[in-house]
């Protein structure tokens, strides 16, 4: 997709998608793929479409509701001192569930530290996500069991990992694809630029999924780029598209098309999911110091869960019994998470030195002995 603008302006919303796209382009604004309006009305797009059954639509709604409830419980646990830190996905459920449900089991996912919804779609136990944030393990799950890599704290490095993996499966002759998640802040990192270069040159089967939630901690997007993020792909020689990140149907349709494109040897693609981070960057952040309440209120009207519920109710695809049952299921999930976190065993004191080098290392052996002596000193003092 191309636009006439050289400024990173916010896209227009509402109305007929086909007519809306023309209006946006005429006004010099980025085109936006949207299949479900904030009011919950289905609209068409000339390049992307999705045909889902009532059961599948209810499934997407369930995914988003349970993911949001899990996320809220994790935030509460951190506030109660049970977790050291938590990165909330509040407001980004559609981007994650839509893209996550577009993947096949044999695809490989490289997340950041906020892809709790994608982890849910890949079948990772939600409680396993919390071990690292509680400080009792280094990840908590086997990446190869669900083709879902461990969370990456270093900003942007997973884009390189994903590209290298995608180059590898091409050599293996596999027809699977790779998807790498990162935020708008990571798009300013050199690792992401290098990943784009290698992916383009080697025609790697990788989809770069950027969740543009408007704020890289306290820096707004307009202080990071002079053009919409998806347009950066043009400079590397592969296509980019901006999708309504609060529209789960559009995120599903666009990501599925991009992954299918990658699998058939057509190379990489960049998806910019235009969304909003409703909460803090992490629980150590205070967003009231750098953004206005009016901005959040504007985006609350575009809530991804509310718009899908509006569709389900308008079309008679779900009744009150469904919504009530889902609320009960969410309560049960929250209790399960709470109980599991509070009973997680602490690791052995010396386990930090295990599995660093396959054959051992003199310096690690020295540090292990020093730490053992340090630990023993507490026992001596207690006598």
From TrEMBL:
Full protein name: Pyruvate dehydrogenase (Acetyl-transferring) E1 component subunit alpha
UniProt key word Transmembrane helix: no
PANTHER family: 2-OXOISOVALERATE DEHYDROGENASE SUBUNIT ALPHA, MITOCHONDRIAL
Region (Disordered) residue spans: 1-30
InterPro entries given in the database record: Alpha-ketoacid_DH_E1_comp, DH_E1, PdhA/BkdA, THDP-binding
Keywords assigned: Oxidoreductase, Pyruvate, Thiamine pyrophosphate
Cofactor: thiamine diphosphate
Start-end of Basic residues biased regions: 9-20
Gene3D superfamilies for this protein: 3.40.50.970
Residues annotated as domain Dehydrogenase E1 component: 62-342
